[in-house]
């Protein structure tokens, strides 16, 4: 008997330690202990967890925020540890306390856990335990408890009887009219999800008036959240009800004096469009969209510009072209020259998507001039967004038309007198090559890429060598062997020593992309021949190149072709050549 008592004591010893840790002054120890709560609960068993551990945890709610956050998270998965769904209500007490603390992150996590365990309550337990908790939180003295309550209505409402439902709706209405803006904000943010579970008759009689009031709130932070609710409510209602009950408020929000509310309307515009249907879109949303695209605030214009393609795509197919050409495109043309770069960039990221919607004729006549303007924009992001989406225009108008219209603009930028403009186009070249394909690239742009290698600005030559590597990775070593390598190797005989050095820089990056075979057969002989160059800078770069490409060469090639050249350079009269040759010899030997 004594032995078995000792065993019991031994098994409970770690629990005592953990409970001591929960009372420890060191925050990290308390945090670690909270994270091991499930271990304590398993060791205690379900009954002792309910009777001892949960009350103990409820009493320790006054702690550091990070400890409380960990506790709120742990309790959400505690149902099996207290004996399953029939006892889950015993977790409500500590979570209720956590849902009232000052720190928002802790409250939100407690609400998440309460939402999780609400599903594990039976309807009877919901009515006897969970709904009273919601009611207590909703009528609490502190705004913290009332904000937490807002997130709990939708999870319990569908599974309780009509009397409780009426009570919940009344409490939610009170929260929507609360004196504290933070509570009204929380209610507005949860109105949409509550609307989805409330019966349609009560949605019209109870929730729509709440929605209308919140959309007219004195605080813009509340009004903008009402826009989100608008989407959920419009999705549930019939078309005629939307027109009568929702649209007046939506019209008012789209012209709100606060730009943040208008921004939210613009951000949610395509969701609203799907919710209200094609008829209301044509009558109300098209004029509203025009207004948002012309808004005085750049953030609103940018948010609306982002939605241009999706909005046009979702228009009634029979009227789509007419609406775009007459109502949307005139405004879009103005945005192309917008003074704000964010607006132009947002538009450039989606404008190409109008090509498939409008077809070949309209693209050539109306859209191509806009693309040309954006391609020449001073903002690199605008140019990149146009080049990134060339493929969808290519599919509509064909490569020939594209090359006649946009390619001259790209070539013009590639030859611009400002080297930074040339540099920007080089960076887009691999992307452009992928969009246009190898044949077109060889015909129109290959010579341009080779010209950059002999540019008078070093940064351009350097970027051009990296560009070659990316092109070889895209088009393959065979393409490089036929198209690029002969031109690169020809530079080794150029009169200008800078161009001869560029040849070596190109080999540095091409060797890895082309592989051992092409490097040994085509490029290595050129490198070794350049070891006799009359300019010391070229000779020491030969040593650096041999060291750089050595990892992809076989041992025989290194001993027969590379080492003799490096030994010769190691005896060079120039001190720098000798230094880099000895570095290369040491590097290859290692």
Automatic annotation (TrEMBL):
Cellular component, GO annotation? cytosol; nucleus; protein phosphatase type 2A complex
Q: Name one Pfam family in it.
A: PPP2R1A-like_HEAT
A GO MF annotation of the entry reads:
protein phosphatase regulator activity
- Sorted alphabetically, which SUPFAM superfamilies does this protein's record hold? ARM repeat
Q: Which residues form the Phosphatase PP2A regulatory subunit A/Splicing factor 3B subunit 1-like HEAT repeat domain?
A: 279-359
Keywords of this entry: Repeat
Classification via InterPro entries: ARM-like (IPR011989), ARM-type_fold (IPR016024), HEAT (IPR000357), HEAT_type_2 (IPR021133), PP2A/SF3B1-like_HEAT (IPR054573), PP2A_Regulatory_Subunit_A (IPR051023)
Domain of life the protein comes from: Eukaryota
Q: Does the keyword DNA repair apply?
A: no
Q: Which PROSITE patterns match?
A: HEAT_REPEAT
Ranges for the HEAT repeats: 168-206, 207-245, 246-282, 285-322, 328-366, 367-405, 406-444, 523-561, 562-590
To which protein family does this belong? Belongs to the phosphatase 2A regulatory subunit A family.
Which PANTHER family does the record match to this protein? PROTEIN PHOSPHATASE 2 (FORMERLY 2A), REGULATORY SUBUNIT A, BETA ISOFORM-RELATED, SERINE/THREONINE-PROTEIN PHOSPHATASE PP2A 65 KDA REGULATORY SUBUNIT
Protein name per the record = Protein phosphatase PP2A regulatory subunit A
Q: Which organism is it from?
A: Thrips palmi
Q: What is the lineage of its organism?
A: Eukaryota, Metazoa, Ecdysozoa, Arthropoda, Hexapoda
Name of the gene: LOC117646102
